[in-house]
């Protein structure tokens, strides 16, 4: 089936002049086309009409069916010859035809009779002979008259061989008359070349109208809308399965395919839209890179297979199944290839997200391991030291023994609290099971016990946050508390969580030494990390501080309505 055509019309891209048609190479290509059109048209007309008549006349003998099927088989085959010959007129058809896989007589007959291209090609075959005959007559007359006029000096010099008579008398052609006829002959050649190119345009537009499929503007608009939605869906990238299913649905809705499927490299179905078919499952043909493999499937259907490339690796295939008699054109295959590229992008993005998540988990576990070493290990060392001191002073200095035991108990309680907080953070489902308030409570207890800070917690009830926002709130509060211990030299810390008017606010305030934000225009690495977490969850982060007045870190996040209404 022909779905695309390109042509270079006369006069495009070059200057015109009186000798343009006569000197242009397209004129002689058109002349060759017209010269071949009459014998080819006679041959095609004879084959089709003769085959049809023979089939009708011998139909009672059962041989006629073979004649009729053979004649029908000739129609698309001869159309290929016509399209090749139309290359002389500057036409270039893009042909997409399934390989000749035998699927049975009835499926082939049903597909051929249902294809509108068959009837357009038949009309071209039937029009070719009479139109070629008209072209031969017109051009032959003009060319014969022009050549006769150009030969005037030769036949005027031999009146005995070519006598010229008028009203019963012989006419003698003078030199001036011969020169006039010579100029007329040259003018006739120019006219013949112009008429020839005009007829070439007629042939070109006739071939374009009958040998190529008409453009589908509505389909083009649907394809553009589908690609726009597919790009938005891939950019969202929230759920790979839902994204691939949506891409398959968009491809089917904007194309003429009955079903579209996305498969893994091993043929496993990832997503599909439309009725199921065996050709959409299992190993299939290997399409060329950046191209399509189009062939017949079971039942006379047509299957187009396109590659899905995910970050340079094999991401599987996109398969589009068409009803018998329907085949995809180049524009539709280009659209499906774009959808396949979107699917490859979605697969690549999902793989990158998975790798980034694994890397982030590894980094977080390494940080927690360092915290475990720096805090709990030191607490255990302090407990050991306090116990040894108490044992050494036991019986000699009861006051010092009591102080050592009190110090040891505080360290043990702090170590237990910090160990709980670290174990809580190590579990990936800790926030989901315990919630933000429980996580912050554990962290606050460990902070107070370990570093001797007085912590005022106003945590209230569990806020309505999505899992992503909940994790961001916990990490920001954890980093803010860590900064208090590391930089603030504070004695008191206030931690609060409140939810008002659809906004969740997490605030960490200390009475430490503070700092001048203007002196840190680029902010610290910890602050940048907190701001990125806040922005990633759709919130904002505000840091207020002055030297000697402490620091206040305020995180605001939008409340999750679904979570709140649950």
Automatic annotation (TrEMBL):
- Record's superkingdom? Bacteria
Q: Which residues form the Histidine kinase domain?
A: 475-561
Query: Where does the signal sequence lie?
Result: none
| Compartment(s) where it occurs, according to its Swiss-Prot or TrEMBL record | Cytoplasm
Q: What is its main location?
A: cytoplasm
Q: What is its EC number?
A: 2.7.13.3
The chemistry this enzyme catalyses reads: ATP + protein L-histidine = ADP + protein N-phospho-L-histidine
Would the keyword Transferase be found if you checked this record's keyword annotation? Answer: yes
Q: Where is the composition biased (Low complexity)?
A: 547-558
Q: Which residues cross the membrane?
A: 31-54, 61-79, 131-155, 175-199
Cited SMART domains: HATPase_c (SM00387)
Q: Which InterPro entries does this one have?
A: HATPase_C_sf (IPR036890), HATPase_dom (IPR003594), His_kinase_dom (IPR005467), Put_sensor_dom (IPR025828), Sensor_HK_TwoCompSys (IPR050482), Sig_transdc_His_kin-like_C (IPR004358), Sig_transdc_His_kin_sub3_dim/P (IPR011712)
Q: Which cofactor does it need?
A: [4Fe-4S] cluster
Please describe what this protein does.
Answer: Member of the two-component regulatory system NreB/NreC involved in the control of dissimilatory nitrate/nitrite reduction in response to oxygen. NreB functions as a direct oxygen sensor histidine kinase which is autophosphorylated, in the absence of oxygen, probably at the conserved histidine residue, and transfers its phosphate group probably to a conserved aspartate residue of NreC. NreB/NreC activates the expression of the nitrate (narGHJI) and nitrite (nir) reductase operons, as well as the putative nitrate transporter gene narT.
Protein name per Swiss-Prot or TrEMBL: Oxygen sensor histidine kinase NreB
Which classification does the entry list for the species?
Bacteria, Thermotogati, Deinococcota, Deinococci, Deinococcales
